[in-house]
Amino acid sequence: MKNTLIVLLVITIVSCTKQSTNEITTLDTYINQSDTVLYNKIIACAAGSPNGISGENKFETSVFFYPIPGATDYKYFETLFVKDSVNFDKYIQTKLVSEPVFNGYLRKFNRGKFKSERMGIVTYRVGEQLHICTPVRIKTNVKPTEVNPNLLTTTENNITPNFTWTDGEIDENVIYFQVISELSGEFISGTYTYQKQFTFYDLSNVVLNVTNPNTTPQLLPNKTYNFTMMAVSEDNWVNLMFQVPFQTH
Fold first, then answer.
1. Structure pTM?
2. In sequence order, what DSSP letters do the residues of 66-91 get, joined into one string?
3. Coil, helix or strand for 54?
4. Which of 97, 103, 106, 136 maximizes the CB count within 10 A of its CB?
């Protein structure tokens, strides 16, 4: 009986040691456990307000990201101080679970309250490759995301409407993300422009297209859709966002 207890104790110690060795606590640890790491390969940004933002009233901050086909094992790491933005050993893994956006075409991590600013990083795996996003500066408490659909002008043009908008209170935007979706949330197209203008489905001023390349998106006449826009700063913070329904003819 005594010998059996000793054997069980040894097994338990070895098991705990292995679990501790493989446990992910920091981004640096996670990177060192991976053979192939691709940096700045995830499109990610964050939006939020201390009082919640439109459609996100339950949470103060959302970190959005675009998972490419085959992506799995979504994780979110965060550092307490902006000064540690390039120190991967300062990014601690959170217990947040990602949620689908636009029926899963995008995803997000919802973040609770915190003080000052933070830096966040999203990771996922595609096969044996570890993908890591550019650090996102989370400025919920410093520069809250403005939600102002009045800044949008929609020009009806049958099934190719034109959308133009102006910057909001914070004029620090370097790129604009536009999503056309069904009222049910089903994703139709996703595009980025440097200009404050997008015409469906004209790609002449599009600098990045996350629409399924195997599809040619089309809108139907006499139907209502949603237009979502996020104005993003250089540090991947969303200064302005809105979602507005529009009608085709």
1. 0.89
2. EPPTTEEEEEEEEES-GGGTT-GGGP
3. coil
4. 136
Who contacts 86 (Cβ-Cβ below 8 Å, separation ≥6)?
135
Q: Is the pLDDT of residue 6 over 50?
A: no
DSSP H helical ranges for 23-149: 27-32
Give CA separation, 215 vs 59, 189, 208, in Å. 34, 10, 16
pLDDT band of residue 24 (cuts 50, 70, 90) is confident
List pLDDT tens digits, range 189-198.
Answer: 999 999 999 9
- The structure tokens listed for 121 are 């990083």
Going by their DSSP bridges, the two strands 206-209 and 146-147 should be labelled as unpaired
Residues 61 and 158: their CA atoms lie apart, in Å, by 36
Summarize pLDDT for 90-99 with one digit per residue, the tens: 999 999 999 9
Distance from C-alpha of 178 to C-alpha of 33, rounded to nearest angstrom: 36
| Backbone angles phi and psi of 142, in degrees to 5 | -105, -45
Paired with 245 in beta bridges are 226
Q: Which helix (H) or strand (E) holds 141?
A: none
> Any residues with CB less than 8 A from the CB of 171 and at least 6 apart, and which?
none
* Contact between residue 240 and residue 231 where contact means Cβ atoms under 8 Å apart: yes
Residues 118-150 have pLDDT tens digits of 999 999 999 999 999 999 999 999 999 999 999
DSSP class of 100: E
For residue 67, with 0-12 CB atoms within 10 Å meaning exposed, 13-18 middle and 19 or more buried, which class applies? buried
pLDDT of residue 55: 64
CB-based contacts of 173: which residues, under 8 Å, 6+ apart?
167, 231, 232, 233, 239, 240
